[in-house]
Amino acid sequence: QVQLVESGGGLVQPGGSLRLSCVASGFTFSNYDMRWFRRPPGTGLEWVSTINTHGGRMDYLDSVEGRFFVSRDNAKNTLYLQMNSLKPEDTAVYYCDRGFGVRGQGTQVTVSS
Questions:
Q1: Neighbours of 58 (CB within 10 A)
Q2: Whose CA is closest to 9, among 38, 32, 33?
Q3: Do the beta carbons of residue 40 and residue 46 sit within 8 Å?
Q4: Cα dihedral 105→39→64→76 (10° resolution)
Q5: What does the pLDDT look like over 17-35, one tens digit per residue?
Q6: What CA–CA distance (Å, rounded) separates 9 from 23?
Q7: What sign has the CA pseudo-torsion 35, 104, 16, 61?
């Protein structure tokens, strides 16, 4: 069964940090570029970051560049998103995504004082 399971979300104060994880199963993780998306309250899905199969190339949404860092551990079938200097506008449900219709259930990140 192809599956992506995110974790690591929560409530954090502005300026704080969180690390999201996404564990993949049911497919060969190292064969796929992986992405993070987010859905802020009341808005549509927004692309956040992409990492290629071996982690040698990462791309970011302009508003998170320099604050968020995507990585992967192919031996552990796990994708990560390190989020630093969080802002209230980063509040969203965060999803990892393989493409081809495979996306996790999401993890809530709330940035608030």
A1: 14
A2: 38
A3: yes
A4: 10
A5: 999 999 999 999 999 999 9
A6: 14
A7: positive
- Beta strands 10-12 and 107-111 are parallel
Is there a contact between 15 and 35 (Cβ–Cβ < 8 Å)? no
**CA 29 – CA 32 distance, rounded (Å):** 6
Contact assessment for residue 69 and residue 55, using Cβ atoms and an 8 Å cutoff: no
Distance CA 87, CA 17 (A): 10
Using a 10 angstrom Cβ sphere, with 0-12 exposed, 13-18 middle and 19 or more buried, the burial of residue 42 is exposed
Give the tokens for residue 79.
Answer: 């994708």
pLDDT digits (tens, 9 = 90+) for 52-103: 999 999 999 999 999 999 999 999 999 999 999 999 999 999 999 999 999 9
Structure tokens of 59? 């791309």
Could you tell me the sign of the dihedral formed by the alpha carbons of 62, 16, 42, 24, in that order? positive
